[in-house]
Amino acid sequence: MFARNAWNTAFGSRVAFVDLRGRQTDWTGDRREFIGRNGTLAGPAALASAAPLSNNVGSGLDPCGAMRTRVELPPDGSVEIVFFLGEAASADEARNLIARYRADDLDSVRVAVAATGTMCWARSR
Q: Structure pTM?
């Protein structure tokens, strides 16, 4: 999911993105849909329902970035969910970052980030 705020003079040309490492099953860019008519920020209606999100994004919505995936958790098991949140100079650069991190060994990425204390290294690789 990509977002841009052209009205922001400092960052209007930049593209923000979210991704569930390609495992998103549905999503919405509308906060009203996610929270729901009788929902709250502490208890959004979309989390209490099995109904799919609309996959709607675009202008005119109350903007948010909500993604859903299906997780099967065995008894006493664990599951790792990877959520990417980032920004790039363009939509093409955002697509390239998403593709790279979907394919990358994220344990190695985490070690590199811990060693440098920053993500700047990722852009120059």
A: 0.78
Total length of the chain: 125
Distance CA 66, CA 34 (A): 7
Could you report the per-residue pLDDT of 21-61, keeping only the tens digit for each?
999 999 999 999 999 988 899 999 999 988 999 999 988 88
Rounded Cα distance, 15 and 93, in Å = 9
Domain limits, the chain: 2-71+79-124
Query: Phi then psi for 112, rounded to 5 degrees?
Result: -65, -40
Contacts of 85 (CB under 8 A, 6+ apart): 16, 17, 18
Cβ neighbors of 83 (< 8 A, separation 6 or more) are 18, 19, 20, 21, 67
Strands 26-30 and 15-19, by their bridges, are unpaired
pLDDT at 115 over 70: yes
| Alpha helices (H) in the chain, listed in sequence order | 31-35, 45-48, 91-103, 106-116, 120-124
Q: pLDDT by residue (tens digit) across 80-92?
A: 899 999 999 999 9
